[in-house]
Write a structure and sequence with these properties.
This protein has 16 helices and 14 strands. About 35% of the residues are buried. With about 475 residues, it is α/β, with parallel strands linked by helices. Strand 13, helix 10 and strand 14 form a beta-alpha-beta unit. Helix content is about 50%, strand content about 15%. Helix 2 runs parallel beside helix 3 and helix 13 packs across helix 15.
Length: about 475
């Protein structure tokens, strides 16, 4: 350990003598030894030095007092005054001024060379340095072994917490990933250390103040960054693999036995009720979506990523015991906003079995189209049930019914499809449609006649109106529409 003046005074071969006041502490660690004969050496001192001098430039009492004051301002730990050169004894004015400012003064006899004191301090500092390096290497090995033996981030944090003497938290996308004190929100009492994983994930290691760091935090930072990246890769792969099975189930491409087996392999009990939380985004936002940390409230959910008709979707299968779907949907929406994804969250109903999962999925897709941040399902909607049935060619029906309108609008710059949507949404009121679209009522009636002629379905007839409404619903749920 670093030496102090008290330690040097205890070395018998140096023959040092303390001349300062008994009230002046001698316990401060000596960082280095500075030998000087300057009147004012302050500009050459950085603090923590033992200043050794023979007083060659201190022939007067004023010079001696000034020397002490400069040493005090520079933050030196004391003065070692060599006698037998310019002075036969340490000047009384220097001792008096040193006592006034609580600066320790040690008499160094002629027989003791200054270099002997310097060597002792340097050797002690060197030993400290090597001891610190050895301790740091041991701590490196402990942290690395913790990860390599499967302890993961929680175990690493516990080890690191003991080393720095402080509580620790890792956040990613603004949410807690691991912590020694769970459910903690870091504030001004915490020190932030940025983590790099090669992704835009805003990962941070938080250390509660005060903490001790001898270099281990920087090493741990690298380990944590590597492990976070590994976690992201594993999470992305797991979601893609699970997504393949869920996609086959929701598309109805499996027989009932295979669907049940797939659910069981994913850890989902077919007999238990689950509901779907769904987010659909463009491909450029999918990278973040596929690796995002989920809120703690959704720890029991199965997260999957699937490609659905040109869109990328994050689909969560959530057991009903996890809580209120609307509350969990808001938790997920908040997490998305932290990442910069503003897509709405759709919620499906809670059902058991593979077909129930399909119903919930299509309900969630239909709910998304309502455009709110969080969209609760319309339980057992007719559209969702028909879409979930692989035996009903809904897409073909929608294309057959609405295709002529789409083609006519594109060819003539018309707005028949928009007029039809508005007419059905406003419950068949010609006056309301005319007011919303800023059209004459006769123009609306003429367009409705055109729609009937082109599609073969008359919007004024209830049976035909249901057919057109279903076709529009299917078109709305399909990104290609």
């Amino acid at each position: 350990m670093a030496l102090s003046l008290a330690d040097l005074l205890a070395v018998p071969t140096l023959h040092l003598k303390n001349l300062g006041s008994s009230r002046t502490p001698l316990s401060a660690a000596i960082d280095w030894v500075a030998v000087t004969e300057l009147e004012n050496p302050a500009s050459f001192l950085s603090g923590g030095e033992l200043v050794l001098t023979t007083g060659a430039r201190q022939g007067t009492a004023d010079a001696q007092r000034s020397f002490v004051r400069q040493i005090k301002r520079a933050g030196a730990v004391g003065i070692g005054f060599g006698i037998g050169f310019e002075h036969e004894a340490v000047p009384s004015a220097l001792i008096a001024e040193a006592n006034r400012w609580s600066v320790p003064v040690v008499e160094v006899p002629y027989s003791t060379p200054f270099i002997a004191i310097g060597k002792l301090v340097a050797n002690a500092r060197s030993s400290d340095h090597y001891a610190k390096l050895e301790r740091l290497l041991r701590e490196h090995q402990v942290l690395a072994r913790t990860l390599l033996t499967g302890g993961g981030l929680p175990a690493l944090l516990q080890k690191l917490s003991a080393m720095v003497g402080a509580a620790l938290v890792i956040t990613q996308y603004g949410s807690e990933v691991a912590a020694t004190v769970p459910d903690t929100t870091p504030d001004d009492d915490w020190h932030a250390v940025a983590l790099s994983t090669g992704k835009r994930d805003s990962s941070t290691l938080w250390l509660h103040k005060p903490f001790h760091d001898d270099g281990i935090v920087d090493y741990a930072r690298g380990l944590i960054s590597i492990e976070l990246n590994n976690v992201l890769q594993r999470r992305q792969s797991a979601r893609q693999i699970a997504g393949q099975s869920i996609a086959d189930i929701v598309r109805g491409s499996l027989n009932p036995a295979d669907s049940t087996a797939r659910l069981e392999n994913l850890g989902i009990s077919p007999a238990a009720k689950n509901f779907v939380l769904l987010i659909s985004v463009d491909e450029e936002k999918f990278a973040a979506l596929s690796t995002i940390t989920l809120p703690a409230s959704l720890d029991n959910a199965l997260a999957t990523t699937i490609n659905s008709e040109g869109r990328q979707e994050l689909l969560l299968v959530v057991p009903t015991r996890a809580g209120d779907p609307a509350v969990l949907g808001r938790d997920l929406s908040h997490q998305m906003h932290n990442v910069g994804i503003t897509a709405p969250v759709g919620i499906g109903g809670a059902y058991a079995q593979a077909n129930g999962l399909r119903w919930s999925y299509f309900e969630a897709r239909e709910a998304i189209t309502r455009g709110l941040e969080v969209n609760v399902p319309e339980r057992l909607s007719l559209t969702s049930l028909l879409l979930a049935s692989g035996d009903v060619p809904m897409a073909d029906m929608a294309s057959e019914a609405l295709g002529p309108l789409t083609a006519f609008d594109e060819a003539h710059g018309a707005e028949l499809l928009e007029t039809l949507e508005c007419y059905l949404r406003l419950n068949g009121s010609v006056a309301a449609v005319a007011e919303e679209l800023a059209l004459h009522r006769n123009t609306v009636r003429y367009r409705l006649t055109q729609i009937a002629e082109l599609t073969g379905y008359d919007p004024a007839l209830t049976s035909d109106r249901v057919q057109l409404w279903l076709a529009l619903a299917v078109r709305r749920l399909s990104p290609q529409g």
